[in-house]
Amino acid sequence: MRILLITDHHKPTGGAEKYFFELKEKLQIETCHDVFSLGFDTTDKKGKDYQTLAIASSNWSKLLWQLLPHPRITWRLKKAIRQFNPDVIHLHNIKQQTAALLRAVQGYPVIQTVHDYHPVCPTSHNIHKNFQPCETGFQRACFWQHQLKFNRLIYLALTASFLLNRRRLKKTIRQFITVSPPLERQVKAHYPQPVTYIPPFIQKDHDNRAITPMTGHFLFAGVLDKHKGVILLLDEFALALKKRPDLHLTLAGTGPEETRLKRLSATYGIQQQITFAGWQTDLTLLYQTHFAAIVPSIWMEAFGLVLTEAMAHQRPVIGSNRGAIPWLVADGQTGLIFDPVKKGDLAAKMLTLANQPELARQWGLCGQLKLHRMINNEKSLQHLLKLYETTRLNTPDALNLVT
Q1: Beta partners for 231?
Q2: I need a labelling partner for 370 at 20 to 30 A (CA). Which of 64, 69, 355, 392 fits?
């Protein structure tokens, strides 16, 4: 079978992109199928098993080409697809050049893995103004209720793009795949196509029982941006320090809020208790030396790669009650769940773990066991291959396949 994988960012920059390239590697190494990847970058590149097309990356151009198919990009995409001649096309994130992509893949068997809430919410946030999760996805009341990242005019443009591309997706996609059951339920409510859940691949186990982590040292790994809850995290960490001055926080990542975070840490006088570790390609050492991870997301998390990485390293997780986080983290068994709207809740959960290091160790071990009860890489790959086959043959969906 000839399998074409398509994503917008053809670089392993985030969780969705990491999964994209892990999937490509597994398909190439563990199966006999012919695999090619296609995506966008800042320059044109072409290799034996991939091609990238150069596009403009400004927010305005991104929005414009979500609405309208770029003539030249559409032609180039059609040419690249025709040259590979796939039996099935597997779309992933397609937030850039959306209109061109959906036009270029017409006539082919197409499935899509949904990595976030973008297909059900114009902003992908799925959060109301009061920062409570949206249970329905897009509806008319969103204009007044939704938590907006942009002004009203931009939100109207995003809504127009959302409605137009939702109609295109309904015509183009034969099968949707989601990365978690909470997201699966939302996509099913918005689209008539079959929707099934196949989780991303998880890391191999790390036996850290012989390694003693630094008690009270917490780890955040991810983009330093508002939606990841990093400002909230710093505020709550400062509260916790008032009762436990020996606590420490490591922020592994970069992002638009980095300068503000450094300024806030200076304002609070806690620079010595915070380490800005920068972007890390390998977090193994940090998971080994820190006794717990924190995932303080404010907006909805579709999956949360950091969660599974921490669990694979036998580390408990303190996570917000957003999206798939409570599905992955068993509150009081493998970690703790907090409400980001409730002031002091995260600080209290940090103190709970810091004051009970043996409990944190036990929860970390339980988290690793829970992870392997939930996710099996081989089953996920085989399920996906069966979906490829049924999509290629246009047979009934494989919703009842064992996951």
Answers
A1: none
A2: 355
Residue of 249, 362, 371 whose CA lies nearest to 310: 371
Torsion region of 145: left, alpha or beta (phi above 0 gives left; psi -120 to 50 gives alpha): alpha
Of the candidate ranges 132-136, 244-248, 262-266, 274-278, the one whose mean pLDDT is the lowest? 132-136
What CATH topology corresponds to 2-201+376-393? Rossmann fold (3.40.50)
Q: Which fold has domain 214-374?
A: Rossmann fold (3.40.50)
At residue 399, the pLDDT reads 39
Same fold, 2-201+376-393 and 214-374: yes
Q: In degrees rounded to 5, what are phi and psi of residue 293?
A: -110, 155
Q: Where are the domains of the chain?
A: 2-201+376-393, 214-374
Residue 148 has a pLDDT of: 57
- Which residues have a Cβ under 8 Å from the Cβ of 123 and sit 6 or more positions away? 146, 147, 148, 149, 150, 155, 158
The H-or-E segment that residue 114 falls in is strand 110-114
Would strands 274-276 and 335-338 be described as parallel, antiparallel, or unpaired?
A: unpaired
Between 387 and 159, whose confidence is greater?
Answer: 387
pTM of the model: 0.90
